[in-house]
Amino acid sequence: MASPLVARLAQLRSSARIAVEDERGQTTFAELMDRALRVRGALLAASAPRGAGERAEPASLEGERLLLLASPGAAWVAALLGTILAGGIALPLSPLYPPAELTWLAGDAGVRRVIVSDDLAALAAPLAQGRAVLRVEDLERAAPGPESALADLAEDDPALLLYTSGTTGKPKGALLTHRNLAVQAELLRAAWGFSEEDVLLHALPLHHMHGVCIALATSLLAGSATRMLPRFDAQRVAAEIARRSATVLMAVPTMYQRLFEHVDRGGAPGFAAGARALRLATSGSAALPVTLAERWRDLTGAIPLERFGMTEIGVGMSNPLDPGARRAGWVGAPLPTVEARITDDAGAAAGWAPGEERGQPGGAAVARGELWIRGPSVFKGYLGREDETRAAFQDGWFRTGDVAERSADGYFRLLGRTSVDILKSGGYKLSSLEIEETLRDHGAIAEVAVVGVPDEEWGERVVAVVVAAPGREAECATAPLRAWAKERLAPYKVPRDAIVVQALPRNAMGKVVKPELVKAIERGTLAGRSS
Ligand code: MCA
Ligand code: AMP
């Protein structure tokens, strides 16, 4: 089957409506597509085998992974679409990553070409070893090239590679196909009522599912405009809302928290009226505390629309667009093509009423257990990790690792994770094993356990509990340890606190009992807190 993503982009190709607004101005869909096709042409031309005087252009990049390191805005979108339309797989990464992480990710993904924007060129320098670094500004000026091969792109072709933390040390690259992206965008357009009249206020990072697909792709493919800010800054976002530059806001809970802090400091006159004027405000990536939801309702008359998503599946469940039917603390019901199953320990559907069709959402019985998902928005697999891909699925269902409850009327709520090693801080999924693995390279650390401690601002706060090598306790204090870790990990993965202890609590099998550590930290009874 031909790519539905290509088909939808072709429909938007001649539209004179605004697609993207950024710090440089406005770009129409027609201009954006023209820029994307030039990027495509340049990528294809550069990868063509050059015979004697001949220039045979390849029809497709055939799944080549291209790393994208550019500032948010129309150029970023053109580079992403150009890569995908050339048959490549786009790997968008964050300028927040230190060189060590960028290099590891590029190596893991087998990247040979890197696309950078001029302002981030210095960050790409460590990636240049054995790789071509291309300026997006140059690619956008190239000739578009023949378009006949666009029709060859298929719905099952991978388009996007997004890295996500798992229960094994290093992150895994999830491959999303043309169909995944198109289905997901269409589900959300319909569920959230997107139209050409909408303007999405976009301040989410562009290396994760929320920012790239749930927000940007939904808005773009609905023909709406997307107002892309360079980064999330509460003052700027509040000012945009106050001056009603957008109709929709998508955010993670920590962003709502930051907006309220800004309001409490007396900032942004007109913010409350602007927030009330928004057609829609959504929250996701982590549980929205009911207190925050209610504060938004006090300000605007409605709680944010909370939904559940995951890199591997896009959005699975969503509260209704109708504010009156939204339920604080719940993530709503599965979207139309999403099948959700709550499973018992043996993997069987749990809690179904007699006579009810198994695996169908909206059952009459209450159920609690691991959440499994099936449907056309579920990803293709982890790049180069067949064993982990196999382990992630059972009987055709993707196992989310989230523990959920389904109410008798078919609403879902998240109760926690099956693994203590997966944390969520400010909406970013983190692997405590990955952070521990990095910290173990520190010569002053004899043993370490990384845990997530419930936190009002971050959802979970990352804390490293450390046994220091003899006489090296001072090096394990929070400040020096953070400075050391920042050179090796993205800043949001760096533990906010380090606590030095004599020994870690272990069970009979020798495994660190992390829940015990978390309780002790919350009670303030863990010895030797350092800062
Ligand atoms: C920044 N810092 C963090 C985090 N973000 N620390 C822990 N957790 C974080 N999430 C660090 C900074 O490096 C800095 O460290 C200090 O905190 C203060 O930074 P600040 O400037 O105040 O923070 P910020 O840059 O404004 O970032 C807060 C943020 C950001 C905007 C909420 O975390 C963010 O963009 N989160 C969104 C993540 C996201 O999109 N997740 C979606 C995954 P220092 O003081 O040392 O300099 S996809 C997903 O989950 C599924 C699909 C779904 O359902 O959506
Ligand atoms: P990621 O791997 O970054 O895509 O994160 C996906 C995870 O975020 C899910 O497996 C959930 O644990 C969590 N998550 C997403 N949305 C919500 C929500 N509304 N409430 C609670 N957890 C959420």
UniProtKB/TrEMBL annotation:
One of its GO terms (molecular function) is medium-chain fatty acid-CoA ligase activity. Residues 434-511 form the AMP-binding enzyme C-terminal domain. One of its GO terms (biological process) is fatty acid metabolic process. Pfam families: AMP-binding, AMP-binding_C. The gene is prpE. Residues 15-383 form the AMP-dependent synthetase/ligase domain. It comes from the Bacteria. This is Acyl-CoA synthetase. Belongs to the ATP-dependent AMP-binding enzyme family.
